[in-house]
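Entry type: protein chain
Record version: 2
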Amino acid sequence: MYKPSLKKENLHSQGSNRADSRPIKPHNLKKILLLLVVLPAFCFAQKDYCKDISNTISTKGFVTYKSPDLKYTAVLKQLSDPIFFALQIHLLSDREHADPSGATVIFEDGTVLKDDSIKVVSAQESSDFYAGNVGSPGMAHTGYYLLQAFFPISKENISVFSAKMIKQVTLSDQQQNVSSKEAAKIMEYIKCMDAVDH
């Protein structure tokens, strides 16, 4: 194996440039590529998600902790009496839901948490009217509705929420698959908030 000399008289010799012109060996290239792939994943795993959580204080003195809103979920904990701790689920639907209720959370290992008594709020997010044309008189109406509900996180289910990745969420009859990236963040936010009691 070539070792460049550390002697002063050899630093400027032609032989000292041999290491610079040698091609990278395939096994070294594999190591470099592996580092480039693994290092970002390691950094992602090491992020302190607790720093992403915001907190506000109400006029009554209650502190509310909230994670960032992700595509379909967020986490909320209010230190009131009693403490309110929940997974916020928000889904878009292209139709109106009359008096919707019920929420289901399915985890990657097949565990299912379901509560049919959860009240789902449905509010119109956007509305578009289209005028008819000569061959089709009249008007058409389309729009999007935001379905939103809070699935309680309790002593009975905290071990599931803090150890398992969410795969799918359902509000009423509207369901969405949750990405593994979002699921990992939500799990970390729940762990952070579980540790907060003041």
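Comment: Helices lie at 18-21, 26-46, 158-161, 180-194.
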